[in-house]
């Protein structure tokens, strides 16, 4: 038997809850989406979340509502999935990469300022593996230059920064509920927005630009509405929300257990030769979608674990290497170093204490 790196968590009540929606034959966006959004606020501290059909839709909607368009620039970390930069390109804007901290995989605030031009509109902070970026430093730069802050929190539902929930801090925060993320709706996402006026926009634009709550059905049988701005078909459906609601049961307990597993990993692996843990600070709590660190002799490490039935894997090289984004950048020294040594090992809801002890044991034997 192999110990996988990811595991899709599906709550035991999910089948029943999704089946109930199928029985009603009302599958699209309805009261379960509302209930899901209310629970995201209540349980995870997200502010005004609008549920969407993917994390990529959330990021794209943030771009649209932030007014990012042709000629604009958005500064982001290359240590992410391509979706983060694609949504910028989709708007005809340019992703501008700032270097990362080798120690965390997150954007390095001290490398942002020199990348700012008169075209820069926003900074996108990607919380690598679910470990929060240096948000105070990022916000200070954003304030100084009048930029928006958009968080790609695809890995970070439940994470906190200085006691505040991720999803309550920046102009826009985008979450993913894709199949292998911590909290899945199959595919799905959410956008949180602090400005109450823009919150209304997120709800309108996720459904073609139609204000669903304020467009009554006429006697003729159609909704009465007027489209005043481009909208999208980005809403979540009720059958997916039913899966999300089931998976929210016990989410905070599951997150606490994930954190406990990480604490054990970090204690056990702290002094292993050839292995360097990522750095952590006491003022924030990661959501740990991933557990990563740096290793020497990486291929030997992967092969050695594989031979013992454990999956270890790199997760995304710096996305700057893609030709669409201009090809590998020589001025991202930490990203280049990170590409060579990052590795991630199993962390998920199905990982038992015994399995963790076994993984630790195998690593301690050397590679
Ligand atoms: C998963 C992910 C996304 C995209 O989310 P989808 O729900 O798959 O569209 C965006 N950014 C990062 C960092 C991700 O890991």
From TrEMBL:
GO terms for biological process: polysaccharide biosynthetic process. Pfam families: DegT_DnrJ_EryC1. The active site is at residue 181. The keyword Zinc does not apply. InterPro entries: DegT/StrS_aminotransferase, PyrdxlP-dep_Trfase, PyrdxlP-dep_Trfase_major, PyrdxlP-dep_Trfase_small. It comes from the Bacteria. The keyword Cell cycle does not apply. Keywords: Pyridoxal phosphate. One of its GO terms (molecular function) is pyridoxal phosphate binding. The modification N6-(pyridoxal phosphate)lysine is found at residue 181. Belongs to the DegT/DnrJ/EryC1 family. This is Pyridoxal-5'-phosphate-dependent protein. It comes from Hymenobacter coccineus. The lineage of its organism: Bacteria, Pseudomonadati, Bacteroidota, Cytophagia, Cytophagales.
């Amino acid at each position: 038997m192999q110990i996988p790196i990811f595991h899709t968590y599906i709550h035991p009540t999910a089948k029943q809850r999704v089946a109930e929606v199928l029985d009603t034959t009302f599958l699209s966006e309805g009261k379960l989406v509302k209930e899901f959004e209310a629970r995201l606020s209540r349980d995870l501290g997200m502010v005004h979340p609008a549920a969407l059909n993917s994390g990529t839709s959330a990021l794209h909607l943030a771009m649209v509502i932030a007014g990012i368009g042709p000629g604009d620039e958005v500064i982001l970390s290359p240590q992410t999935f391509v979706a983060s930069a694609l949504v910028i390109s989709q708007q005809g804007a340019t992703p501008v990469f700032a270097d990362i901290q080798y120690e965390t995989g997150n954007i390095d605030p001290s490398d942002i300022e020199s990348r700012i031009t008169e075209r820069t509109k926003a900074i996108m902070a990607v919380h690598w593996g679910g470990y929060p970026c240096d948000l105070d430093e990022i916000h200070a730069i954003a304030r100084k230059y009048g930029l928006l802050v958009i968080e790609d929190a695809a890995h970070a539902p439940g994470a906190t920064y200085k006691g505040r929930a991720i999803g309550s801090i920046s102009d826009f925060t985008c979450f993913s509920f894709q199949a292998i993320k911590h909290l899945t709706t199959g595919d799905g996402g959410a956008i949180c927005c602090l400005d109450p006026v823009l919150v209304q926009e997120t709800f309108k634009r996720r459904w073609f630009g139609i204000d669903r709550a304020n467009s009554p059905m006429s006697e003729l049988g159609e909704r009465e509405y007027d489209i005043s701005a481009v909208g999208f078909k980005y809403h979540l459906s009720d059958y997916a929300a039913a899966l999300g609601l089931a998976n929210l049961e016990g989410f905070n307990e599951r997150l606490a257990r994930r954190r406990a597993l990480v604490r054990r990993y970090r204690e056990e692996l702290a002094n292993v030769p050839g292995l360097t843990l990522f750095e952590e600070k006491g003022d924030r709590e990661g959501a740990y979608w991933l557990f990563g660190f740096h290793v020497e002799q990486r291929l030997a490490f992967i092969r050695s674990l594989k031979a013992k039935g454990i999956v270890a894997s790199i997760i995304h090289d710096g996305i700057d290497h893609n030709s669409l984004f201009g090809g590998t950048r020589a001025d991202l020294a930490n990203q280049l170093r990170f590409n060579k040594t990052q590795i991630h090992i199993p962390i998920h809801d199905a990982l038992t204490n015994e399995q963790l002890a076994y993984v630790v044991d195998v690593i301690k034997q050397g590679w």
